[in-house]
Amino acid sequence: MIRILHLLTFFLLFSTSLLGQTGLTVGPPRVYFVGGSAGSNMMQYVDVTNPSKDYPLELAISYEDWKYSELGDNQLYPAGTLENSLANWLTVSESYFSLAPGETKRIQLNINIPSNLTSSNIPVYASMLFVTQMNPRANIQQEGANIRLAVRSGIKIYYHQAQSPRLEVNIENMVYHKNDSIGSYLELDYSVDGNSWTEGTIRMEYLNQETGKQTQVPDINFYALPGDKRRFYSFLPQDLSKGKYVATLLLFYGDGPEIKIGEIAFNYE
Predict the structure, then answer these.
(1) Number of folded domains in the chain?
(2) Can you tell me the distance from the alpha carbon of 232 to that of 9, in angstroms, rounded to the nearest whole number?
């Protein structure tokens, strides 16, 4: 069973705006565990906040697996489904708890590394921790019907064994697509290798070879796991004039950062 996380996120934003005074904040958005020997335990903290001024929250914690799609969307799976699942290693200090209006609770998140864990071909283990409201607020009426809505918020949990992180991103292909109905765009295909999670930025620059004018579009952030194969689409800027162009793509990643560069020439007609 696969579910797309951006649909869940839409529901969260939609329900929060309707309820007005009821929401849920969980942070940090990502928790990283590194190292630890087989059979050992590691611990970090997660903060859960009820921003409501007048409504208490009854909350429950659960886990699901996830991975990125080719386009970078988050795909959810039942806990323990994926080969790199971290879900069965995780425990928290409280699985069910209440928050008064305005209250914040710090939850202890533990990772229990299996005693039989050995070096394997799985460089990164990952799962998601969800905090779900169990007492939906029923104060909305629409066309005479009561609507009960709850909020749910998730964070990503990562783990890899003690090792020197090796990040590698490779540009596989760049293609210009001329499309009169939806607008012309560039396609970037790239692969993510190495042995750790990767965070980076994609930058697109367009050089008009006839006028010398350079146009840059806003940077796009990306997050990836080892082994990901990605496809990124970038529509040409609406104010781009017709002419002969060289598009330069700069892919930044790592602390350095490392930079990979790709170029493609095309006629924009």
Answers:
(1) 2
(2) 21
Q: What is the 3-state secondary structure (H, E, C) of the chain?
A: CCEEHHHHHHHHHHHHHHHCCCCCEEECCEEEEECCCCCCEEEEEEEEECCCCCCCEEEEEEEEEEEECCCCCEEEEECCCCCCECHHHEEECCCEEEECCCCEEEEEEEEECCCCCCCCCCCCEEEEEEEEECCCEEEEEECCEEEEECCEEEEEEEEECCCCCCEEEEEEEEEEECCCCCCCEEEEEEEEEECCCEEEEEEEEEEECCCCCEEECCCEEEEECCCCEEEEEEECCCCCCCEEEEEEEEEEECCCCEEEEEEEEEEEC
Q: How confident is the model at residue 84 (pLDDT cuts 50, 70, 90)?
A: very high
The type of residue at 166 is: R
- pLDDT tens for residues 22-57? 589 999 999 999 988 888 999 999 999 999 999 999
Q: Enter the pTM of the model.
A: 0.82
Q: What's the domain range around 216?
A: 167-268
Q: Given a cut of 60, is residue 59 above it in pLDDT?
A: yes
Same domain as 253, residue 121: no
Same domain, 183 and 122: no
